[in-house]
Please model this.
Amino acid sequence: MRAFTFDTPATVADAVAQAGDGSAYLAGGTTLVDLMKLDAMTPTRVLDINRLPMRGIRLEGARLSVGALERMSDVADHPMVRARYPVVAEALLRSASPQVRNMASIGGNLLQRTRCGYFRDPDTPCNKRAPGTGCPARDGHNRAHAILGTSNDCVATHPSDLAVALVALDASVLLRNRTGERIVRLDDIYRLPENTPHLENQLHPGELLTEVSIPALDWARRSTYVKVRDRQSYEFALTSAAVALDVRGGMIRNARVAAGGVGTKPWRLPAVERALTGRPMRLDTFESAVAHAADGARPLAHNRFKPALLRRTIVRALTGLED
Model:
């Protein structure tokens, strides 16, 4: 780990004022500290934001607001989240380990860096860590890598389970910077790698994610998160599906579907949503709707199984919502 300065800002305004090029915010530290130990991230200044007033889980009008410093385990166990947004609670409970969930923050989870082994190893090239050095994953070990949204410069998968659930629900985030605040859809925060994979999101330098806002959809009570992985504990998704359905009289009136483990960002599937809408709540509807789930996929040598696995994962999630 390289040398850095350490500060504890007293207010949100102080935090964004002190942040700049080469700085990093420390919340739970479950990603940042690991990457600093590996020299995959080398901030020159670390700002501990744990004392800032960025907590709380509350229903405000037509939205549920969650402070960015809330711990993953606390949000997963919150009665309002479990009752109104089971897809969020399930995504959190299928993330990491209990110990990590007790430490990791909601904001940190949404902005965590990829778990690509080439990114985490400073002795190998990686366009995401060192632009212009190459992407050895394309021709190397790529079983867990992305098939959607990839480029010639990067095929790293986005790691957050929670982000998949929140993108499906059309959540937004509140960002604080030196000139004020702005609200951005979470789906719009994440950037595709294209030829600049080191630019992972749309945050301005020093900008701080302070709150997550989820629409208060009554029918989000019928939602779930299915995660397919190599083992049941502390493993990242090979594929995952977040689904929510508005069902009345046995007919699907509205649908939200997003996938994880397959994209360079959380992957919303509007074609699948459209194919479900107006159809009966039946297995043949589900199997027909997922036909285009992997449209545009570019599988690599070791992950050619992912398009079919993605379709089966979505069908499994939808089937789990049947009465």
The CA atoms of residues 102 and 175 lie 24 Å apart. The mean pLDDT is 96. The longest helix spans residues 306-319. The longest strand covers residues 239-248.
